[in-house]
Each structure stands twice: as C-alpha cells, then as structure tokens.
Design a protein that fits this description.
- The structure holds two protein chains of two kinds.
- Chain A is α/β, with parallel strands linked by helices.
- Helices cover 30% and strands 18% of the residues of chain A.
- In chain A, strands 15, 16, 17, 18, 19, 20 and 21 form a seven-stranded mixed sheet that branches. A five-stranded parallel sheet of chain A has the order 3-2-1-5-6. In chain A, strands 9-10-11 form a three-stranded parallel sheet, with no helix packed on it.
- In chain A, strand 2 (41-45), helix 3 and strand 3 form a beta-alpha-beta unit.
- The radius of gyration of chain A is 24 Å and the shape is globular.
- In chain A, 60% of the residues are buried.
- The model of chain A has no long low-confidence stretch (mean pLDDT 96).
- Chain B is an alpha+beta fold.
- Chain B folds into four domains: 7-83, Ubiquitin-like (UB roll) (Roll), CATH 3.10.20.740; 107-220, Alpha-Beta Plaits; 226-286, Single Sheet (N-terminal domain of TfIIb); 291-361, no CATH class.
- In chain B, 24% of the residues lie in helices and 18% in strands.
- Classes of the chains: A alpha/beta, B alpha+beta.
- Chains A and B meet through helix 2, helix 11, helix 13, strand 9 and strand 10 of A and strand 10, strand 11, helix 7, strand 13 and helix 8 of B.
Chain lengths: 533, 362
C-alpha cells in the first residue's frame, strides 16, 4: 500500500476495485465503513454484488476481466471534462501527451460496450474520483489475477497520476496483501528477480554486494518464477524445496501441478500438516506454527512487526529457518550458523536498504513502515510524497485485451473464484479450528436465481461444472450476489477442488495466473448422473 | 506538529492542579491522562461518548449537578473535581444498582478482554451490598448454540457497548436493543440467532462487554485447565492487515485470542478468523517428526539426522547430475521473514542461482 491503514477512514472518495474487503480483509474494511458513515463517497467495481457494493454510492458491475476498459473509460472522462490535476501532472509525471492521445478513443460508451457498466455510471465514478480532495484506490487479487494484471494496476496508476491522488494523506494506490507475510517474503528476497530489499539481481552493484555477503560468485541472470519452474519439473527442474505452501490445491490447474511435483527427482516440503502437497514429497519436515515461532512479519502497509512464541511446538517440530539452515549446512553451504531468529533478521536488515534502520529490538512495538533507510529514521507511512522512486510518474498506454479464454457455446458461463469470510485458502488452518464449520460447512456455487431456473435446477441441487481442463461436482446456491451468466466459488474446500478448472492463462510480466476468469459449462446432476445440457 | 497550540487558552484545573488539554479531549480523557482514576462502565475509548452509566461523573464548578466526564468536552478555565465524598457515594450507589442487575459479579477472566471491569469497580467502591437486590433486566439467550459467543444477558447491565461497537467500530449493525427499563433486552433482528443476523462473529462485542454477559465460548472451554492465563503479544496469522493480538495460554495450551486494543494496524479490531480460528496450532494432525518416503512408496517417521541427510543429498544429487539450475525453492508467504530469508540464501549462496520464488503469484 502506498498509504497506511489508518488512512482508510480519511478519503472523501474511495474507489474499491477487485477487492471483497469485508470478507478478505475485514478489519481494514472497518476503516472504509467509518469513512462512508462520515459521508465519504464509495465507488465499488466488481463483477459480483459483494457486501461492499451494498454500501456504495455507485456500483460498477463490470464483466469479469474487463477492468482496463472500465479504467480507460474513466480516464477518458477525466481528461474530456478537464478534471486533471494539471500542476501535479506537470510537476510529477511524464508521458501525458501520448497518454491523452491514447485514451481519446476510450469513450464511456466504448467502455460500456465491453464492461456492461452503464456509461453514465462510469462518468459519475470518474468525476467523483477526479474531483475528490482525497481520492484513494484499494484493490486486491480481482485486479492482479488476470492475464492483464499488470495492465490493470498501471491503469489504476494512470488514474491516480492524472488526478494527483497519490503521495498525500488519505489518497494512494493501495493493494491489500492477502497473506500475513506475503509482503515479507518479497522483502526478504524470496523472488527470482530481486535480492532482499527488492535489489535487482541483474544490477552489477547488487551482485557485488551479495557476492561479498555470501562469499561466492552469484548468478548474473534472473531466476525463473514458480509458474515456469512447475512447467519445467522433471525437465530442467529436478529438485524442489517448498516451504509452507499447499501448491497443488491453491495453484491453478491442479492436475498439471500434481504431475509437475510427481515428476521431480526430489521434493522436500516443510509444513505444519501433511497437506496434499506434502503427501507428494520425498522428505517432509515438521515446522513450528504461528504462536510457536519467534520472528518478523510485514503487513500490507509495510509495517514491520514481531511475532512471538506463546506455546511450545508439538513433538520435534522446528522453526523453518532452523530447518533450512540445517539442510544448507549438510549441503556444505557456509554461513548458516544462526542461533536465533534474531540473528537471521539482523542479517537481513544489514543487507536491505529498506530495513537498514531496523533491527530485532527496534521493531518490538511495530512502529516502522519501510523504507527505513537509516537508524533513527521514523519510517515511511506514505510513499511517493515528494517524488516517485524513479523520479517522475510515468503514464502507461494500455489497450484492452480479452481474457485468455472467453465464453463460447461449449463453455458459456464465466466462473470467477475467490475467498470467503470464514475460511482461509485451502482450510489447512480454518478447517481445523472448532466452530468454523458451524458457519461454513461446505462449498457452493453462487449463481443468479434466473440462471438456476434457466438451467433447470433449484437452490441446493448438485451440478457438474467443467472447463477445458476438468470437472468438479458442486452444490448450486441461488443468490443475487452473482450477476446473470457469472458464477462464483472459493477454492477452499478439498472436495470441490476448483483449481482443477482454472489456469487458462498468465500475466506475461508477473506470471500471475488468471484465477479470476474461467469459462465453464454447468450441467445438473440427476439421480447421481450428469445430465447433458 | 504540536497537539497543543497555545497553552494559555488550553488550561483547566483538575483537583486543584492546573493542567493543559488538547482541543478534542473530553474531561475524562484529560483526567485519565493526568492519572485520575475516574471509573467507567459504558466507556470504550474507541467509541463515541455515550454517557449511559454515569459513573464517570465529576464536579464542575458553576454547574449544579455532577456531569458525565466522558461526554463533556474540556474547555479553558474549567474547575473540575474528580473525587470526593459526595462523588464516591454517588458512584457507590450507582454501582450498587448496577450490581443488583446481575446473577453474579465475578466472572471468569477468559470471558473477554473487558470482562473484569464490573467486578473491579464493585470491589473498589465496596458495592457488593445487595442493597437494591430485586428485579433484573435482560434474559439469557440459551437457544443460541453458536460455538463462539455466549449470550448470557442475565449478566447484562445495558451499557450498550456491544450495540455501539458493532455499529461504530465494525459497521455491521447486527446488535440492537429492545424495550426500555427493566424490560431492556440486547438482541438481534427478529430476536433470532446471531448466525441469522448480520453478525460476522468478529467477537468485538465479547471483548468490550464489561460483565461477561457476552463471553468467548471458545476460551471458556479452558476454564477448568489449571494455571494462570498468560498473554503473549503477537500478530495474527491470517491476512495481510497484520492485526496485533494477545495469545492466551494456560500452561502449554493455547486457549484463546484477544485483540490488542493498542495494536497499530487494528486498534483493537479483529475478524472471525483472527479471533476464533486458532485450534489448528495444537491440532492432533500437526506433524511432530520428520517423514521420509520409504522403499514401499509410503512416508514414514524418521530421525532429524536421517531426514536432513536425505534432504541435502537430494539437492546435491540434482546439482551434480543436472547442474545447479536444476534446484528450485518456494518460500512461504505465511512463515516469518527468517524462513524466506534463509530459503533465498540457501538457493543463492548454495546453488548460485536465483531460482527462488514465493507463493504470491497464486
């Protein structure tokens, strides 16, 4: 997030797109509810009528995967109606003439033809956001899990640059991170293109720095992403270490994933449970869990915070860092003589410019947002206040692209996937916590009541849902939360392994899977047999 | 930035002491900042002033009756008294009436964060006199068998903190009030069950309840476990918001979670997952030893020594047979920094490749 969580109650206009925040980040959503109660305008763009939509001043129910058209249409209106922040654009950005030329054709009527959102609503949303004293954008995986995820983010960035809604309190471009330490995993260097602190691996200065730190020549090229690695399992990739990820359930195209992991010569998994992924391993190590592990995590607002152990681990379970260090030592790799999580974290701080001003003791109360460039620096709650990292903010020219697969006669319904309030990812944790089943015992396919009737089914009936990659059995739930022609379910329940269906395509830059769009066919199950539609 | 711009226009007297206040402060806030022990029951610093319980009354010079300090803005020149015989008697009488409302004053501390407030005040003001014993308001909702929130309104004193936290803090408006006087009943829509209302089971009502009328059913499972409740401050394990929580333990057992009211990311708020979904930690399915795949194709328990040797050898074999670029690692977005950092160092320093990623692409 460019801005801290406490800013969420401060904007005049809030634009939420592709974020089901009340279910996936409920505590963050309380800030937005407070802003709305205070009179802030709320714009919500989502294919589904999510709870946030019920609180909105304007709801933009766009067709799945059409975000760049919606955002291009909004940019067009802002430019057309003279609502740009001219001084911000002049002082802080570059590339505006080309951008304005590019969006000239993106009329709200054109956007309506692609998104299905009425042009008048697109205009209203654009005007409110542009005229806000403090306009803030919030988004989640509904923006990024597309083949055009990067385009979507850059389209949002264009809107913020046009209107100067960045670098100030209560504004910004704010992605909500989904896992407790997904930000930290990147901060710590678990990326194929970056060393710790997002230092590029192809920058010679950084290479020299890590060569010195690790006492050996480093690779001069970027590594491959996990998506590519899974493609090449059994071919170029022969041995894999997976720490705390239930890859076969949470990644797209489950059959492909299972096949990939089975093709390895050697798979080592570190986890809390014998997950579907751990069950494929040659060696499984028991890790200490949350509440058993001392360590550090960084949240979505870049706040660096301490995790503290409260109970002893079961049996012989050990912290992940200890397990990895022991494997490293037995591989003969020097430099893994850590005695505590503190040793590891302090080494990270010594190598990351973002954490240079931090150490284990300084983060005790979680006061710092990175970057913290030197000791004594108070941290940086708001990014881009005076300038952007690379100087000026660059307008990007984005064209609308169709999703990797679009609906047709064979697969005529859009499936979009996501999460629910009561369950978390593949339920390895929430599914083992007493009481959660009382509220959410099984998965269901949220379907518009008209579609349920048109498909000859009733609420609670079972159906077979198929994509180009496979089929699952799922119970129908009639609800107006889904628009006609689009269905929704989560990937949380192992008995409805919806990621058998997904995996139609990937963003070319980030290789993030298009988990939000998957054309499917839905057929009723009668007397235990799938009836042809 | 300074909070107090001009000292001369921001002074008042508390118990004879001249103190400075900032423009947005209430008399209660000023008094507590200057370490006056002003009692409250309906007050939660995260919520709008309510002025229901009247325990926070103070004497204000020039005003005939005591005023509720939680609902009175501080003004320059005010002369305030926070304690004295008359005030103490007033507060004791109010507490005697409040105490008469409830089946019991002492409740299990596992009930919730604020659950001891009434008992503490009853002791401080020696209000356990039974002076007004008789009619009570509120009736337990015994048919609500949800596994999270006990609704024992026999213990309710109608402070409305649950109603207000649900509306103001959560924006859910699930809890409401029915009737008035002795017929007052905290309820939800159609007098129904929480699961049929707009309740999201965030547990905020439980944690703000000062009497244990709303109580944490999951934590109460551990009532009979021996030992004191110990709180350990940590960060929630679920989404990226990073809410501060206190893990409640008795001995080696994790028994509950309470929100950290001063948590920088959450200011006391939590959701159902952070509040209640913690049993996985000490679940019987947890792995407790390393496992190795045997010749029979199955995974079997193994010693650390054997398992570490086998794990290391597999990576070395791949490197020797297929080159250093044949080794890959995926770090967790759920484990701490130290896990991700050592994993990337393992790959970069050990195999001289950048074949490392985390689970953020799916």
């Amino acid at each position: 997030m460019s801005n801290p969580l406490e800013d969420m109650s401060k904007p005049d206009v809030i634009f939420c797109i592709g974020t089901n925040m009340t279910e996936c980040h409920p505590v963050a959503a309380t800030g937005i509810k407070k802003a709305v109660a205070r009179g802030a305008k709320l714009i919500v763009a989502d294919p589904r009528r999510i709870p946030l939509a019920d609180m909105s001043d304007v709801f933009l129910p766009l067709r799945v995967g059409s975000d760049t058209a919606l955002l291009g249409g909004m940019a067009h209106v802002i430019a057309r109606d003279g609502l740009m922040d001219e001084s911000f654009v002049a002082e802080r950005t570059t590339g505006v003439p080309e951008f304005l030329e590019h969006i000239k054709q993106m009329t709200p009527e054109w956007a309506e033809s692609i998104t299905g959102v009425p042009a008048a609503d697109i205009e209203q949303a654009a005007r409110w956001y542009a005229q806000a004293d403090r306009g803030a954008i919030y988004y989640t995986l509904g923006i990024t899990e597309h083949i055009c995820g990067v385009d979507n983010v850059q389209s949002l960035s264009n809107l913020a640059l046009m209107t100067g809604n960045i670098g100030r309190e209560g504004t910004g471009i704010n992605p909500m991170r989904g896992q407790n330490n997904i930000q930290g995993a990147g901060d710590a260097g678990a990326l194929p293109n970056n060393y710790p602190g997002f230092q590029s691996v192809i920058d010679p200065a950084n290479q020299a720095k890590f060569e010195q730190a690790y006492g050996h020549a480093v690779d001069l090229e970027k590594g491959m992403t996990k998506v590519t690695a899974l493609e090449l399992c059994g071919d170029k990739i022969r041995a894999m270490l997976i720490d705390g990820e239930n890859t076969v359930v949470t990644d797209p195209d489950r059959q492909h994933c299972e096949h990939a992991l089975r093709s390895l010569d050697h798979l080592v998994v570190i986890d809390l449970f014998l997950t579907e992924t751990a069950a494929l391993a040659d060696v499984v190590f028991p890790a200490t869990a949350w509440a058993e592990t001392d360590g550090v995590c960084t949240n979505t607002e870049r706040r660096v915070q301490r995790l503290r152990a409260a109970v002893p681990p079961p049996g012989e379970a050990k912290p992940d860092w200890w397990i990895v260090s022991q494997i490293a030592k037995r591989c003969g790799i020097p430099g893994f003589e850590y005695e505590s999580a503190k040793d590891v974290f302090n080494e990270l701080c010594s190598l990351s410019p973002l954490y240079a001003g931090l150490d284990w003791d300084l983060i005790d109360e979680g006061r710092h947002h990175w970057p913290v460039p030197y000791k004594g620096h108070p941290g940086t709650p708001i990014l881009h206040q005076d300038e952007f990292e690379n100087g000026r903010g660059v307008f990007k020219l984005i064209d609308y692209r169709d999703p990797a697969e679009t609906v047709d006669d064979q697969f005529p319904v859009w499936l979009t996937t996501g999460r629910r309030l009561q369950s978390y990812h593949s339920r390895t944790q929430t599914g083992r916590s007493a009481g959660i089943d009382y509220l959410l015992a099984e998965e269901s396919l949220e379907t518009h009541p008209d579609d349920v009737a048109a498909w000859g089914m009733a609420d609670g009936d079972w159906c077979t849902m198929s994509s180009a990659r496979g089929s699952v059995r799922i119970k129908i739930k009639a609800t107006n939360r889904s628009p006609r022609g689009t269905v929704f379910c989560s990937f949380s329940f192992n008995d409805v392994p919806v990621n058998i269906l997904t995996g139609s395509g990937y963003d070319p830059v980030t290789q993030t899977a298009e988990l939000k769009v998957c054309p499917v066919r839905i057929e009723p199950i009668r007397d235990g047999v799938t009836a042809p539609s | 930035m300074s909070v107090i711009e001009d000292r001369t226009t921001a002074e008042l007297q508390i118990d004879g002491e001249t103190v400075v206040f900032s423009p947005v402060e209430t008399l209660l806030a000023v008094a507590r900042r200057h370490r006056r022990e002003v009692p409250t029951l309906c007050y939660d610093p995260r919520l709008d002033p309510f002025g229901g319980c009247r325990l926070c009354v103070v004497e204000l010079e020039g005003v005939r009756n005591p005023v509720a300090s939680c609902a009175r803005a501080a003004e320059p020149g005010m002369v305030v008294r926070t304690h004295g015989e008359a005030l103490d008697k007033h507060r004791k009488t109010l507490l005697e009436m409040v105490c008469s409302e409830n089946r019991q004053i002492d409740v299990e501390p596992l009930s919730g964060y604020a659950s001891q407030e009434l008992a503490e005040l009853a002791d401080r003001y020696q209000a356990r006199t039974g002076r007004f014993q008789g009619r009570q308001s509120g009736k337990s909702k015994q048919d609500d068998d949800n596994p999270f929130i006990l609704r024992d309104y026999d213990q309710c004193i109608s402070c409305y903190r649950c109603v207000r936290v649900c509306a103001e803090q959560e924006g859910d408006y699930a809890i409401s009030v029915k009737n008035r006087g002795f017929d007052t009943q905290i309820t939800v829509e159609f007098d129904g069950l929480l699961k049929d209302s707009s309740c999201t089971f965030c547990g905020q009502c439980v944690q703000t309840c000062p009497t244990g009328a709303l109580a944490d059913r999951k934590a109460l499972r551990a009532v009979d476990l021996p030992g004191e409740v110990v709180k350990t401050r940590t960060i929630c394990t679920y989404c990226g918001v990073g809410c501060s929580v206190d893990a409640l333990t008795k001995g080696d057992k994790l028994v509950g979670i309470q929100p950290a009211m001063d948590g920088p990311a959450n200011q006391g708020a939590l959701c159902i997952k952070g509040q209640y979904a913690f049993d996985f930690v000490q679940h019987e399915d947890r792995l407790s030893t390393p496992l190795m795949r045997g010749d029979d194709g199955e995974l079997h328990p193994a010693s650390w020594d054997d398992a570490l040797d086998r794990a290391a050898q597999g990576f070395l074999d791949a490197r020797d047979k297929h080159g250093r670029h044949s080794v890959y690692a995926v770090a967790s977005g759920r484990a701490p920094h130290e896990a991700a950092y050592t994993t990337q160092r393992f790959i970069r320093a050990g195999f001289w490749t950048n074949h490392i990623d985390n689970c953020s692409r799916a």
